[in-house]
Amino acid sequence: MASTPSRTATGVRVRVPAKINLVLKVGAPRPDGYHPLATVYQAVSVYDEVHAAWADPDEFDVVVSGEGADLVPLDDSNLAIRAAKLLARTYAPNDSLGARLSIKKSIPVAGGLAGGSANGAAALLACAFLWDLDVSADGMRELAAELGSDVPFALLGGTAVGSGRGEDVAPALAQGTYHWVLAYGFHGLSTAAVYRRFDELSPNAAPPEVPADLMNALRSGDPKLLARALSNDLEPAALDLQPRLGTVLQTGLEYGALGALVSGSGPTCAFLVDDESAAIDLSVSLSAEGVCRAVRRATGPVTGARVIS
Ligand code: C5P
What we know:
By secondary structure, this protein is α+β, with helices and mostly antiparallel strands. It folds into two domains: 12-172, Ribosomal Protein S5, domain 2 (2-Layer Sandwich), CATH 3.30.230; 178-300, 2-Layer Sandwich (Alpha-Beta Plaits). The protein has helices at residues 79-91, 115-130, 137-147, 151-156, 191-201, 212-220, 223-229, 235-241, 244-254, 276-289, and strands spanning 12-26, 37-54, 60-66, 99-105, 159-163, 168-171, 178-184, 231-232, 259-262, 269-273, 294-300, 306-307. The strands form two sheets. Strands 1, 2, 3, 4, 5, 6, 8 and 12 form an eight-stranded mixed beta sheet that branches. The protein has a four-stranded antiparallel beta sheet with strand order 9-10-7-11, sandwiched between helices. Helix 6 (212-220) runs antiparallel to helix 7. The longest helix has 16 residues, at 115-130. The protein is globular. Residues 1-6 have low confidence and may be disordered. Bound molecules: cytidine-5'-monophosphate. Residues 34-35, 37, 148-150, 165-166, 191-192, 195 line the site of cytidine-5'-monophosphate. Cytidine-5'-monophosphate binds at residues 34-35, 37, 148-150, 165-166, 191-192, 195.
């Protein structure tokens, strides 16, 4: 990894995007409990920032501010802390490194936008630069996959096909910029709980494959084609756990969205629209209807985790 910062660097700041799943096909659980996935991720312009600074040897701590900060654990279950410790253990086991992490959140917690995974990816990158470690891109990807299924994509960004349990990512051929409106839910959803409900609702899930119409739509750059190809196998499970999400999706479509789906395990609903002015109109309408907690506009694809200072 190219690195310039040294021990004199006061800190490293990384910006990392949210993701939505344009398609999410889910198979029956594997022996390890994870579900085989065929998905297409797109990174969108809602960002968290993670700042890493030197701390005393073997000291790791985290503070969190912004969207949903009070819902983020500050102990060793925090993905940013786990990422920093995993990196130190793997690449500098004899150095007694430490890090003080600070997370500024805009991505909602437990929202189906991979906010926690984004924080893990950002902490990996920030600490690798802070500590001036020699980690290859493959090495980073391996640690990311160990941290969680969505973490490798948060490093990569753009539009990418995900397979395995989601951790195996490859850039997809995609044209154009897409305009999204995101409706945040009043309450989060546990990813594990949504997968459990999926198993109950779909006991005979077929091996997952990315549909050709979605890849063709991405190559065309036409949002109307993409809108028709959006789909999410977890949507029925998310709607079953939070029935009001059906109203949110319906409301967005009635107000002119080209397409609508629950993002990942939800509860965020993502609406694809034609252009920026359509996004503004839809945001205003959804806010006025009061069907969701908050509405954000975003564009995609955007780049993955990047050092910004
Ligand atoms: O990989 P990650 O830790 O982000 O996954 C969170 C939870 O989501 C897992 O513990 C598992 O219950 C579920 N999951 C799954 N199949 C996947 C990805 C996640 O069952 N492919």
